[in-house]
Structure formats: C-alpha cells, structure tokens
Design brief:
Order of helices and strands of chain A: EEEHEHEHEHEEEEEHEEEH
Oligomer: heterodimer
Strand content of chain A: 25-35%
Largest sheet of chain B: 9 strands, mixed
Shape of chain B: elongated
CATH architecture of chain A: 3-Layer(aba) Sandwich
Number of strands of chain A: 14
CATH class of chain A: Alpha Beta
CATH class of the largest domain in chain B: Alpha Beta
CATH topology of the largest domain in chain B: Rossmann fold
CATH topology of chain A: Rossmann fold
CATH superfamily of chain A: HUPs
Distance between the termini of chain A: 60 Å
Largest interface: A-B, 82 and 100 residues
Shape of chain A: globular
C-alpha cells in the first residue's frame, strides 16, 4: 500500500489581471479568482492513481489562509481521502519555511501511525515561482528527490518517475520513501463527480498551527513590470488583410519559396 | 569569484541561456570591481566550448568528470558544484533559469541553507545584494535580498542577450573529480529515450511559430492553422485551454506550464493572451495576433494584428502565400 501526500497551494488564477497589495508584499486577492497551481492538479491526479493502484490512500495538504480549504476540498472531491490545513499566510512564508512545515506534517503523520512513503508537489507554484520547495523538503526529511517529471508509478517499494529532459525522455527509479515534483502534461486531471463533491464538502480537515515562526521569503517587495504602451500596428480586418500579412512575412524574411 | 553552471547541448555546445547567464555574470563582476567568473560544466568539454566560454569572459572552466556524473542526478551535480565552490571560494553561484539550472541551484540552496532566487532578470546592488526576478509567470516582479553567501540565483531566459566580453577570459580548463556520496546518486537517470522528432524541442528553437487558442473552436478547427504552419515551415503552439480541452497534445502547449518560445515571429490565432500564455511567448521578437477582439491582451501586446475571425483570415493568408509562390 502506498499512501502519498500531495501538497497544493492556493494561487491567483492565471487568467486574472494581477493587482498587488498596497504594501507590495502580495497579490491582492479581492479582485482575483483563485485555483490550485496547474502542476499540482496533475500531482493530485497522480497521488490518487498511485494510491488506487495498490489499495492505499491519498492525502492532501496545504499551507494557507482559511480560504485555501477550498483547494483541499477540490482535491478531496477527486479522490484524496484526508486533508491537512496548516493555517498561515502563505505570502509570509519562504520556500524553506514551507518545506519545514510540510516535513513537520510528514513526521507527525508517521508518529500517528499513518505514514506517507511518497510526497508529491508541483514543480513550481504559479505565483511565487520558487522552483525549490520539493527539493528543500527532501533535505529536511533526508529523502531522495526527483524533480519535474510527468509520469509516476510505484511497485515493490520502488518509485519509477519519468519526464522530458534536455536529451530525451528520462526515467528515474529509486526506493521509497521519496519526494517527487510534478509537471503538467503526463496525466489528465479528472473532473469531480457529484458524489465526490458531496463527500468532499463533509470530509473532516485536520487543522493545525505552523510548527515554527517563518524566516520569510527574503522579499523586499513585489512590483508590476512597467506597462509598455501598445504599439500594435493593425494590418486590417478580416480576409482582406491577407496581402498585408504576407507582405509582413516577406519583410521579416520568414516566407521561404 | 562568481561560479556559473553552464549546460552543454548533446552537440557539445554551451546552450544559449547558459551563455546569457555568463553575460549577466559580467555585469555583476564589474559591479564588484572585476570579480573573476568561473564556469562549471559536467563532462569533458572540447576546445571549442572552452574557447566560447573564454570569449564570454570566463577565467576557468571546471569540468566535473567521473562515473558519478555520467547520468544526471540533481544532487550529484550540486555536490560537484559545491566542491568547486568550496575549493575556489565562490561568493555567487548562478545558472540559467532552465529546468536543470533551477533544480541544481535548489539543491545548492538546501545544502547551504541560503535562499535561492529563480528567474532573475536584473540585479539592483551589491550591498545589500538585491535581485529582481519574475513571479506569477512574469506578470509581476519580486525584488529579493540575498543576504547569505553564496548568493544563489538563476537567470531567466532572454533577460539579457548573450554576447562576447570586451576582454576575453583566460579560459583555463580544470578537470575536477570531486567525490559524490552514494545518497546523492539514488535519484539519478536510469534511462533516456530519444525524443520523437515532433515534440516540444522544435517549438523552443523555431524561427516562426503558429499559435492557436480557444478561437480554433473545436478539435476539428485546426486544419487551416496546420496548413499555415506547414506553409511557413513552422511548428504549431497552442494555449493551455486547447490542451486542457484535449483538442491538441500537451507538448504543443506554449505558456507558464508549457514551452517558452522565442521565435522571430509568433502568430497567435484566437488566443486572448492570459498571463499563463504570455509567460511562454513574451520573448518573441515580433507578434502578429489574429483575433476577433481588438481589446484582447494579445492584440494590445502584439507588434501587428489582424482583427476578425481566424477561420476567414487564415485560409485567405494561406491562399495568398500559395498565389505568390505560384506567381
């Protein structure tokens, strides 16, 4: 039985316009839609598949404010069976802080007799883009880590993980326990069923406080890139613009004969 | 000393984003009063590679060699980088903001306990050591202080243009064989399959890319777009909506969770230009947006645009190309 823990983060929807808080310390959520990071949707799907393959159970956790329970319920609705919420302002936590909090959950669950042999994360969060929480977590736990893969399977106490590398499709095989970080593209995240949603609504969530004060993200402030005034040249409307378009191709030298 | 991890292509050349990172390091070196720049490569570089790096201003090229480095392991590469860093006393450890670069630097961060800044586009000063990096797929920037040594950061692709230094470096090759603990070899590549020829590699290096978004309308709506791609000898790149709906395979996705492209011309058709997509195509030199909404972000950010239904415009363009070729 494999009992993976998958870690998700509530982030601004990438279709929203980004508005920053006045102090420049975070994204202003009052005007934004929220979701879980895209890579993590795939990590959740993989956790559910890995657990289903050998009769284990997939758990989900997040570190975030009260609203981030929404992302836990989204994971519960598609097959995770237990959830842990570390109550904290995620924008005040740096990657090392988050890694330490995940490690604390992993250790506490092991002490409680419900260990996780595999921890799955997204390769990078859609907002903070630190590209390192999974790796720092592995060092906290003293486990090996495979980064940025799209496919994961477990058998006989070994995890096989694979994904695109610079020279081709790369495969890693290593004994559990292990940390694996996921990129979108290898699995199709399932849609929640109606019974799944109903179950998720009622599922109990383990609420906990952070294990330590955060060091913080070394952030001075967030800024928006200077708006570049639109300098678009409209070549025309509809099919009538085709000659102007092909003129442009010729001008740019992209139209080989 | 500034230490830069340089990635080497299967053909044995320094990849462009690594040369950009070395170019970035030169500004940092100048600000520090001429701090030397050393490179670390994995494997045995040929003379041409060492010479290229010298041209970019590199003093020494440390080549990590030995069985521990034959197959990729993020932990093993980091161990090698750390060994060189300790021997040579680097105060800054850098890499390109590629999957490998960010991964290896994250290991270095975890090993040293120092912060690691991913995808830096500029540095703001040495005391305190301040960098600006891309967050939210480049839709926002974060100013970050790297107060510990080594300062660890990756350079976002195309933040600077790779260029030769005014004064070349010595380009001295130093073969390094630091030992790697068994624990650092547990998570290593056990096999690599050659990629199929049409996977995302073609997108990342293409001169022209034809883009398609929700405006294609359905999985059957790509005929004329594929035809345009063929006429321009360009790969097709699509938005996340298109792959999420299952209209096209994921390896064609351009965006924050797909490929980052930097063609001379990108032609996004029926793509609104959400953050997710813009993160993958903002490095295109010219953008011709074809969209029915003149206020779509992709149109306002483009260099050129045609307003209207792509299903009318694209066939007309294809026809015009064929007409001119026939004439």
């Amino acid at each position: 039985m494999t009992n993976p823990l998958v870690c998700v983060k509530r982030v601004v929807d990438s279709s929203s316009e980004v508005v920053l808080t006045e102090d420049g310390q975070g994204v202003d959520g009052r005007f934004a839609g929220f979701t879980m990071s895209a890579h993590e949707e795939c990590a959740v799907e993989i956790a559910v598949q890995v657990a289903a393959a050998d009769g284990g159970a997939a758990s989900v956790m997040t570190l975030g404010d009260a609203d981030s329970v929404e992302q836990l319920r989204a994971a519960l609705a598609v097959g995770c069976t237990s959830a842990t919420h570390v109550q904290a302002d995620s924008q005040a936590y740096g990657p090392a802080d988050v890694a330490r909090e995940i490690a604390a959950v992993v250790r506490d669950h092991e002490a409680a007799g419900t260990p996780h042999e595999l921890v799955l994360l997204g390769n990078d969060a859609a907002d903070s883009g630190d590209f390192q929480v999974g790796i720092r977590l592995a060092y906290e736990l003293g486990w090996p880590v495979v980064n940025g893969v799209t496919h994961v399977s477990v058998s006989d106490g070994e995890v096989t993980a694979s994904g695109a590398g610079p020279d081709g499709h790369e495969t890693f095989r290593l004994p559990l326990p292990a940390v694996v970080t996921i990129l979108e593209g290898g699995v199709e995240p399932r849609y929640p069923s109606v019974p799944g949603r109903m179950k998720a609504k009622k599922a109990p969530i383990e609420e906990r406080e952070p294990s330590a004060e955060p060091v913080g993200p070394s952030r001075v402030r967030l800024v928006l890139p200077p708006p570049s005034p639109s300098s678009v040249e409209i070549l025309g409307e509809g099919a009538a613009a085709a000659p102007a378009v092909v003129d442009l191709f010729e001008q740019l030298g992209v139209l080989s004969r | 000393m500034i230490l830069v991890l340089v990635e080497v292509s299967p053909a044995g050349e320094a990849i462009e984003t690594s040369r950009e990172a070395v170019t970035f390091a030169r500004d940092l070196s100048a600000a520090g009063g001429g701090v030397p720049i050393d490179a670390v490569v994995v494997g045995s570089p040929d003379d041409a590679l060492v010479k290229t790096l010298a041209t970019h201003g590199v003093r020494r090229v440390h080549a990590l060699t030995g069985p521990a480095y034959d197959a990729f392991s993020g932990a093993a590469w980091a161990a090698g980088l750390m060994a060189v860093r300790e021997k040579a006393g680097a105060v800054v450890v850098m890499a390109a903001g590629t999957p490998r670069g960010n991964e290896v630097l994250a290991h270095v961060g975890a090993r040293t306990g120092a912060p690691m800044a991913a995808n830096v586009i500029s540095f703001g000063g040495l005391s305190p050591f301040t960098v600006t990096r891309q967050v939210v797929g480049g839709a926002a920037l974060e100013e970050m202080q790297l107060g510990m040594r080594p300062a660890i950061f990756s350079v976002a692709g195309h933040a600077v243009e790779a260029s030769a230094a005014d004064v070349p470096g010595d380009g001295e090759l130093v073969v390094e064989t630091p030992e790697v603990a068994d624990a650092d070899l547990v998570a290593r590549v056990v096999s690599t399959e050659e990629p199929a020829p049409d996977l995302s590699g073609a997108l990342k290096s293409a001169r022209v890319v034809v883009g398609a978004g929700r405006g294609a309308g359905s999985a059957d709506g790509f005929g004329e777009l594929l035809e345009l791609a063929e006429l321009l000898d360009a790969p097709l790149g699509v938005s996340r909506v298109v792959t999420s709906l299952g209209w096209r395979p994921h390896h064609e996705q351009v965006g924050q969770t797909g490929s980052r492209i930097s063609p001379d011309l990108y032609i996004p058709c029926g793509i609104s230009g959400a953050i997710q997509h813009w993160a993958g195509c903002s490095s295109a030199k010219a953008i011709l947006a074809i969209n029915s909404d003149p206020d779509a972000p992709m149109v306002t950010k483009a260099t050129h645009a045609v307003i209207g239904d792509l299903h009318e415009i694209v066939p007309a363009i294809n026809e015009e190309i064929r007409r001119r070729r026939a004439g």
